[in-house]
Amino acid sequence: MNGSPTIARRILKFNEELADTTLELPPEFTVINPFSGPQKDRVREVTAAFYSKYYDDDKPRRLVLGSSPARRGTAVTGVPFEDARLLESETGVDVDGYAVSRPSAGFLHDVISRYGGRKEFYADFVMSFVCPLGLVRKNTKGREVNCNYYESKKLLAILEPFIVESLERQLAFGIDASVCYCIGSGENFTFLSRVNEGRRFFRKIVPLEHPRFITQYNRDREEEFANKYLAALRGQGD
């Protein structure tokens, strides 16, 4: 490996830098930062075990970007899109009591399995987010609910410099920028495409429907969407 930092070390360093990130948001919005939150020690243990297992090399990979971490998923575990129970079995670290399994992760688990399994998938891809920290807002009942970075123009204006900088830092993982896969074919894709027009981070961005949209509203078409994911990830139809 000629002495260069592994992808694992680069990602874990990025996460440690996120731990020191402070964002001043409008009062109705809150950041969830798993790398500096109350479970930070366990998050550090989980992420170190996960990335060391799958990214202990310096082979270039392509990015798969969601919008931002879910408040009871990645925003707590620190590992993008991984099902909590599967993450526990993969890393050997107890995650009971601080994370839940999510339908989105279940759909992606199926895609990853059909791609060839985690070892094959993570040898080709890094999964992350356009906005790498979780966001919540208070609803009309005063409860915290998931929020996307693009839900408010005021919020997006504040977050955009942080998002652009985060994308630049993620490209430094050792990313193959010939193509990026965008999870979320609506506003996430629109925003990422706009940023890319000016910055030219990626040669091409491929939009993919969000697993939540698939599992909640199009369950009878899951096979169709899974095949679409697989064809895109394998570069078919380019």
CATH architecture annotation? 3-Layer(aba) Sandwich
What percentage of amino acids are in beta strands? Answer: 5-15%
Number of strands: 7
* Count of discrete alpha- or pi-helical segments spanning 4 or more residues: 10
Overall geometry comes to globular
Estimated helix fraction = 40-55%
Structural class per helix/strand content? alpha/beta
Arrangement of strands in the largest sheet: 3-2-6-7
Q: What is the quaternary state of this protein? A: single chain
Mean pLDDT: 91
Low-pLDDT runs of 5+ residues are: none
Number of domains: 1
CATH class label: Alpha Beta
What fold name goes in the CATH topology slot? Answer: Uracil-DNA Glycosylase, subunit E
Tell me the name of the CATH homologous superfamily.
Uracil-DNA glycosylase-like domain
Largest sheet: 4 strands, parallel
Write the element-wise H/E pattern from the N-terminal end onward: HEHEHHHHEEEHEHEHH
Query: Nearest-angstrom radius of gyration?
Result: 17 Å
* Amino-to-carboxy terminus distance: 32 Å
